[in-house]
Model the fold of this input.
Amino acid sequence: MRIALTQINPIIGDFTYNTEKIIAATEKAIGLSCDLIVFSELVISGYPPRDLLEKKDFIEANLVHLQKLVTSIKRIGVICGFVDKTPKKEGNPLYNSAVLFDEGKILYQAHKRLLPAYDVFDERRYFEPGKECSSFVYKDCRLGLTICEDIWNDKGFFSRRLYPVDPVERMIKEGVDLIINISASPYQVGKREFKWDMFGGIAKKYNVPLLYVNQVGGNDSVLFDGISLAFNSKGKIAARARDFEEDIVTFDTHREKGDLHPISGTDTESILNALIMGTRDYVRKCGFSKALIGLSGGIDSALTLSIAIQALGKENVAAIFMPSQYTLKENFEDTKELAANLGIKLLHVPIKGIFKKFLQDLSPLFKDVATEVTGQNIQARIRGTALMALSNKFGYLLLSTGNKSELAVGYCTLYGDMSGGLAVISDVPKTLVYRIAHLINKKKEMIPERIIQKPPSAELKPDQLDQDDLPPYEVLDGILKAYVEDNKAAEEIIELGFEPSIVRDIISRVDRNEYKRHQAPPGLTVTTKSFGYGRRYPMAQRYTPI
Done:
């Protein structure tokens, strides 16, 4: 049997768009002489639909479009994900389901058994777990159909399993010839190799090929890298789709061979491609076509601008430089060079006069605050207000430029530099910002070298440097990874070799700035733990470790 592994980029709730994508892909698969085409988890609705699943008309529309696919598609079998209703009067009313249909008839249906409720997942909120782990025969091949998490419970791979049941193990006992897993597995740096080891290990252990079809695209902060795969019965990759773009690859079950398409070569390249895709999808799926970035002369805004241009095209990106009396001459020159390198026009909106007027009008209440934190925040908020005004006037989505290191410790200003509709690099630590910038410059210098080399500064007072208030970013990022991503306690982090007083200070800053992050724009997730939907800490709390 010749099977097409097909990853498309669905728009959540746009059933017409998604079904048209599915139909177009099936025509392509027929042209490739495929017998079966496999799509991703909840492909008809897009994943994750979240509380849209509580709307009855949303569920009905999903079922109507499933039926449209069943009646419209001929000459090829189709496996795809959708939302089904449960027949029971107790428990959750929905199943996360997969269906196989061919020539106008539904031949088999499976319900997801293992429902994740960690990180960005909250499936137990909506779905009832399936009860069976059965297989079925299609074109003389016994198939075991699983949905995403159903395959993530192998006792030989996980020392602590989250679920008592392993659906794959149950299906193997029925003598399946092929395991199929349809997924919407979010991207995180380093995760792809983990998945490959796991999938390959399962295929090799049971001596059966394994197909994995993943969603691609960005939906809010959650990114999906695609990289749909086929493993042969020896556990080796036999077919592979591209990362961060729609693609289709074929796999021949008799020869256990298929198409191998290229993917990102390094973690840094993978992260950059993820950010480009995530920015493009967020802007366009939210109904915008253009983006706006405020430039400072620093590396964060330069990187954000470069990503936006690669995502949307230079004709769809505007850059604004808003100097103050504290802006160095070098930053005027560097922003001008950056704009020229990237081929865009640079707009200037000086804030010196506005800041002076603010201080003058507030002088009865404030005295000598120009360079204090209050005055620094006023400057940031002037810039934020100007950027939002331009966004409103011209219909550009404002992209904020803060990185993860700053957001973690609150080194940012509410309603100032945190203003915007999307925080592109808010899950990118400062040290990683530099690595991505060097990657962008690998073929040709796009970000001026002086921007990369200069010491970071908010430029809100004379001679200001980030390191006046923060430890070196190499130290800060090491502590943040241990605390935020690895969930280590202070003593464990100190044992890694960090200065105890610095560790406790950084942890305190992370904890007390939770309220800021709750008011930040959504960011694109690329690490194992971002600040957003998958990290849920209270703002009002007084917990201190014993």
About this structure: DSSP finds 16 helices and 20 strands in the chain. The longest helix spans residues 373-394.
